[in-house]
Amino acid sequence: MERKTVTIKIAGNSYPIITEDDPEYVEDLAELIDKEMKQIAQDSPSLSTTQCAVLVALDRADACKKATASADNLRAQIKDYLEDSARSRMEVDVARREIERLNREISNLRNRLAEK
Length: 116
Description:
Blueprint: E1 4-10, E2 13-19, H1 23-43, H2 49-115
Antiparallel strand pairs: 1-2
Helix pairs in contact: 1-2
């Protein structure tokens, strides 16, 4: 991928970012962080820019960790569902073979009765 330099602005400061991501994506991230920092600064005017940034970072890290745990949980559930599905398919195959065997046995018994 092509690396690009994108200049973003957060809390009044400009930061050149080198990224392979779409510039609009990086700018959207910066907007999100800037908006969160402004909200925290508005709610708690005594906090410094660094303190606001730390609170935003903690919030984002919390969200990331919870999302990762949720994704791991979903992966485990999907794995269980796939195992259940495979087990059910095997049970269906066994049942089909038994049905075929019983149908052959019924057919043989009917033939024997017809011969008598």
